[in-house]
Design brief:
116 residues, mainly beta, four-stranded antiparallel β-sheet, 53% strand
């Protein structure tokens, strides 16, 4: 059984920082890519950042230069460091992985709210 559990969300003022974490249970973590997505009210879920099993990263244009995704395979954990937060970053942030290109898994989400 695979579970993804996010933490680290909260309320922060514009310009502040948050670090999200996602712990993956099971044995699939180190061999698969990981991603962070977000969904604002009334909007679709969009990718924020992804990281491959060997550490290659990609970022949405809207967060480039402000966000860093990283992973610790020894801890089965992926992180999302978010700096210079803006009100438009307010959303529920979800952790995601896909095992072997076939089986997708999502976390339950963690709320990030940025006040102006």
């Amino acid at each position: 059984q695979v579970h993804l559990v996010e933490s680290g969300g909260g309320l922060v003022q514009a310009g502040g920082s948050l670090r999200l974490s996602c712990v993956v249970s099971g044995s699939i973590f180190s061999r698969n890519p990981m991603g962070w997505y977000r969904q604002a009210p009334g909007k679709q879920r969009d990718v924020v950042a992804t990281i491959t099993s060997d550490g290659n990263t990609n970022y949405a244009d809207s967060v480039k230069g402000r966000v860093t995704i990283s992973r610790d395979n020894a801890k089965n954990t992926v992180y999302l460091q978010m700096n210079s937060l803006k009100p438009e970053d307010t959303a529920v942030y979800y952790c995601y992985t896909i095992d072997g290109g076939r089986f997708s898994y999502w976390g339950q989400g963690t709320q990030v709210t940025v006040s102006s």
